[in-house]
Design goal:
- It is a single chain.
- By secondary structure, this protein is α/β, with parallel strands linked by helices.
- It has helices at residues 9-15, 19-49, 53-77, 82-96, 115-135, 137-148, 157-179, 182-205, 210-216, 225-253, 261-274, 280-301, 308-332, 340-365, 371-382, 393-398, 400-420, 430-445, 449-474, 529-535, 537-541, 574-582, 588-592, 603-608, 635-645, 663-670, 704-711, 745-748, and strands spanning 478-481, 484-491, 496-501, 504-510, 546-550, 566-571, 597-600, 617-620, 650-654, 676-682, 695-701, 717-719.
- The chain is 57% helix and 9% strand.
Length: 749
């Protein structure tokens, strides 16, 4: 009896040679679009919604929910034949196209609308169907490919998906945002959507019949609950560590704009390596990942600010090695192709949970970036641990309990000696010697997970963890919000107290000498641009001048207030209000302006609600850190400030920034608006207090008399620099790329 061919085998053989490039192109293009839409919509929403945490936390949850829904939809489609799946998905793509060109629908929140409800509704209504349809592409098309090409690994296509995501991540800040207005970006995305839809249709046309697809994807045993939970955990840790690395770098190492791109990019590239058909690189990196976790983890927790870029490189290397190792383990535990969509749904759940933990819960639960060492420890728990020294395997297996107790005791002893050096034998090098001893002990335990994790915990505690816990136990020296970590430090030798937001100084006050407690310090000393302007208020506007200040900090500017003047501060972070007004740590407000009005919320939205001509001077002090709120410096924002200030009003803009040259931006944006403007770079000299710092301020007004009076008071005021390559910022266009300084300039000097 002749052997009958497998059903559909001829059909599969005919389409198989040309399938891979087509499916790769479709998956890569879809992922590229997915990573363009998120920053694009954020830029569109910022002027309308502001930058308050409630807004962007809600937005993050919307993106995670839509991504989960897309993966869930792809999994749900698995109950149908592949051609029926194609028909349904084509229908979804067609219906979602009704939302093109992509953008936000009309409408703005009312005064009493809750952001946690209004923002999700706005985003769902604006991009929900489009995001859902595109997010389903990667798992759905891999399943189609598995049905069309039996025996070919469909999981390798996930590498293409993440290459597309990485390309979209890099393309937006580097190419799209600097060169295109938002309206043009919307049409570019629309064209990309049409292209992806055509590729999906082309893939659908090549799908085999239901009979052939069933033969290509025979049903396998479903995964156990324990296996699904393992998938979720392996996906959760790299996702959370990616966000925690971004927070840790900008909080404790160096606050460089766009630094968040690098952790996310390495996270995406790790998928491409882990899911590649070529296993050499993934397996090699996974083998040595435990050493990296042990050594780099300890170095990062104990890292100093002396070598910020070296520390940043180590942190990124640690993230990359952990991500490759855990994603490689996911690949090794992947199910048969017929369970593919469920596998990716579990990955999506894990990724979402990691984001929720690091992005939403950690700022509420912790006063420092404790999520970072927690996730490093979780990496040690989950990473593959092959024995680096197989000769030790027998000893561990024969005396597991005894060996574990001995290792834990040795780790604790070394840790305590490194922390306290009770006998004084090791001198100033006690931490380094102890850490080296722990590293050697840790390498010997690779392969014995409980012992390895114990040594890892000891190294993290030794090299910084215990210091962080000690500050937390102090109770009032550090606090945290969704905007970052705020640390209060006392310097008895100088008689000062400082407030730092991550690595950015936000205020200094003299606390030991009551005579100096009212003295403005840092960027706000009398010789600075804002100091000169505030001292000129009586001359410019009389005894009842009206002053607004965006950014409260420690409340330093309040000590320029005089009787009869009307002051108000605009501060987006309630935690800062608590530090400056309620903590008792800083006395600028209590001593100088105890009844100061403080408006909490996004400054642009708050100022928009003010009546015309209600301020004489407005000081913008929101641009000194890595996260520059671009919507506060667009042409539309300047027009709003001009309305509130009136014809004779004075706008002071603080542009001191290590990484951005903001003066040309202000110059280009103010052009054509009737502004008279000049800049003042202040450098401390003889006669200044010891806490004066260099500062750059810009003075802007539409009244030539006000401008002349201020400039005539003295100081080295200069015309604004203008650069042809720096366009004006508007609500439709803004990019920091043209004004980025050389990040290594400080090292070169």
């Amino acid at each position: 009896m002749p052997i009958e061919p497998e059903p559909g085998a001829d059909e599969v053989a005919n389409v198989r040679p040309s399938l891979r490039p087509l499916f790769v192109a479709a998956i890569l293009s879809g992922s590229f679009l997915l990573f363009l839409v998120q920053p694009m919509i954020a830029r569109m929403a910022l002027p309308r919604l502001g930058g308050a945490p409630a807004v962007w936390n809600s937005a993050m949850l919307v993106y995670q929910a839509l991504l989960l829904a897309g993966y869930g939809y792809a999994h749900w489609l698995g109950r149908f034949g592949v051609r029926r799946q194609a028909s349904i998905h084509a229908g979804l793509l067609a219906v979602a196209a009704l939302w093109l060109p992509i953008g936000l629908i009309d409408g703005a929140p009312g005064a009493g609308d809750e952001p946690a409800l209004w923002v999700p509704w706005l985003l769902f209504a604006s991009i929900g169907p489009l995001f859902l349809a595109i997010s389903a592409q990667a798992p759905l098309l891999q399943r189609w490919f598995a049905a069309s090409a039996p025996g070919v690994n469909p999981y390798a296509l996930y590498a293409a998906s993440n290459i597309g995501s990485f390309a979209g991540l890099i393309a937006y800040p580097a190419l799209v945002e600097p060169n295109m207005a938002l309206s043009s970006q919307s049409w570019l995305w629309t064209a990309g959507y049409a292209f992806v839809a055509l590729l999906v249709v082309a893939c659908a046309i090549r799908l085999p019949s239901t009979r052939a697809a069933i033969a290509a994807l025979p049903e396998s045993a479903p995964p156990t609950c324990r296996r699904v939970a393992h998938w979720i955990a392996l996906a959760l840790v790299p996702s959370g560590l990616m966000l925690a690395t971004s927070t840790f770098l900008t909080t404790d190492i160096v606050a460089v704009p766009l630094l968040w791109v690098m952790p996310l990019g390495l996270y995406l590239l790790s998928f491409s390596i882990a899911f590649s058909n070529r296993r050499v690189v993934a397996d090699l990196l996974t083998t040595f990942a435990p050493v990296t976790i042990l050594v780099f983890g300890g170095l990062m927790i104990g890292g100093t600010h002396e070598f910020p870029y070296l520390n940043a490189t180590i942190a990124l290397g640690l993230l990359f090695m952990v991500s490759v190792a855990l994603h490689t383990q996911l690949y090794r535990l992947r199910p048969a192709p017929d369970r593919l969509t469920g596998f990716y749904l579990a990955l999506s759940v894990g990724g979402a949970l990691g984001g929720v933990f690091a992005g939403l819960l950690a700022p509420v639960l912790f006063d420092w970036t404790y999520e970072y060492p927690i996730l490093i420890i979780a990496s040690g728990v989950l990473a593959p641990l092959p024995w680096l020294l197989p000769v030790l395997t027998g000893a561990w297996e024969r005396q597991r309990a005894v060996t574990l107790v001995a290792v834990v005791a040795a780790a604790v002893a070394i840790m305590l000696v490194g922390m306290f050096d009770p006998l004084g034998w090791l001198g100033e090098r006690h931490e380094r010697i102890a850490f080296l001893a722990l590293a050697v002990l840790g390498v010997l335990t690779i392969g014995a997970r409980p012992a390895f994790v114990a040594v890892l915990v000891a190294s993290l505690m030794l090299f910084g963890g215990w210091r962080a816990i000690r500050i937390t136990l102090d109770g009032d020296s550090r606090t945290r919000s969704y905007f970052g970590v705020y640390t209060i430090r006392d310097y008895p030798e100088d008689g000062t107290r400082t407030l730092a937001h991550g690595t950015t100084l936000h205020g200094v006050q003299f606390v030991d000498d009551p005579r100096k407690a009212r003295e403005p310090t840092t960027y706000y000393v009398p010789g600075s641009g804002v100091g000169q302007a505030l001292q000129a208020l009586p001359e410019l506007y009389g005894p009842r001048a009206r002053v607004g200040a965006v950014g409260l900090g420690t409340g330093t500017l309040a000590c320029y207030a005089q009787p009869g003047q009307d002051w108000r501060f605009y501060e987006i972070d309630p935690v800062v209000v608590g530090i400056a007004r309620d903590s008792g740590k800083f006395g600028f407000l209590a001593r100088c302006l105890p009844d100061a009005r403080i408006v909490v919320g996004d400054a642009r939205l708050s100022i928009s609600a003010q009546p015309a001509g209600s301020l004489d001077l407005l000081a913008l002090d929101a641009f000194s850190s890595d996260a520059v709120p671009m919507h506060l410096m667009t042409r539309e924002a300047l027009n709003n400030y001009a309305r509130v200030l009136g014809p004779r009003g004075l706008l002071m803009v603080h542009i001191s920034n290590r990484f951005l040259d903001l003066e040309p931006v202000v110059s280009a944006t103010a052009r054509g608006g009737g502004w008279y403007a000049a800049s003042l770079r202040y450098e401390p000299g003889m006669g200044d207090n010891s806490e004066a710092t260099m500062s750059d301020w810009i003075a802007m007004t539409r009244d030539p008399e006000v401008f002349g009076t201020l400039i005539g008071r003295g100081g080295n005021w200069m015309p604004l620099r203008y650069r042809n390559d720096v366009p004006a910022w508007t609500d439709d266009y803004a990019s920091i790329v043209p004004v980025l300084n050389d990040p290594l300039a400080e090292l070169k000097e």
